[in-house]
Amino acid sequence: MLLVDDAIDALEAWALLLRMECFEVVTATSGLDAWHKAQQSPPALVITDLMMPGMNGLALCRALRADSRLEFIPIILWTAATISVGEPVFDRFLVKPVLLDTLLEHIRVLLVRP
């Protein structure tokens, strides 16, 4: 999975927690960094923060959905902000703070993993 957040401490903490749950995790600190990594090696799932400088999480979701090789990758968009999006560019929307069990439940549903 590809985990994207510009808050480095949070990114590293979540990556560690997910690795402890036996997930392979690649991290990116910006939407543009994530976009390049997804193009190089399409991930099974993307979890991205919304608020990031440059290419934000919503722009990343739109870019993934516009690419025929990446359009079916499940996406979890999470943020502490409240947003309204008219287009279905992500599969799940979570409001931070998120409990690990809640995140794992969404991941497992999207990856069809027990």
Architecture overview:
- There is one protein chain.
- By secondary structure, this protein is of the alpha/beta class.
- It has a single domain (2-111), classed as Rossmann fold.
- Helices cover 39% and strands 17% of the residues.
- It has four helices and five strands.
- It has helices at residues 8-20, 31-40, 57-66, 100-111, and strands at residues 2-4, 26-28, 46-49, 75-79, 92-95.
- A five-stranded parallel β-sheet has the order 2-1-3-4-5, sandwiched between helices.
- It is globular.
- The model has no long low-confidence stretch (mean pLDDT 93).
Gap from first CA to last CA: 16 Å
How much β-strand is present in the residues? 15-25%
How many structural domains in the coordinates? 1
CATH architecture annotation name: 3-Layer(aba) Sandwich
Q: What count of helical segments does DSSP give?
A: 4
Structural class call reads alpha/beta
Largest sheet strand order: 2-1-3-4-5
Radius of gyration, taken over Cα atoms and rounded to an integer in Å: 13 Å
CATH class (first level) name: Alpha Beta
Largest sheet: 5 strands, parallel
Number of strands: 5
Q: Which stretches are poorly predicted, pLDDT < 50 over at least 5 residues?
A: none
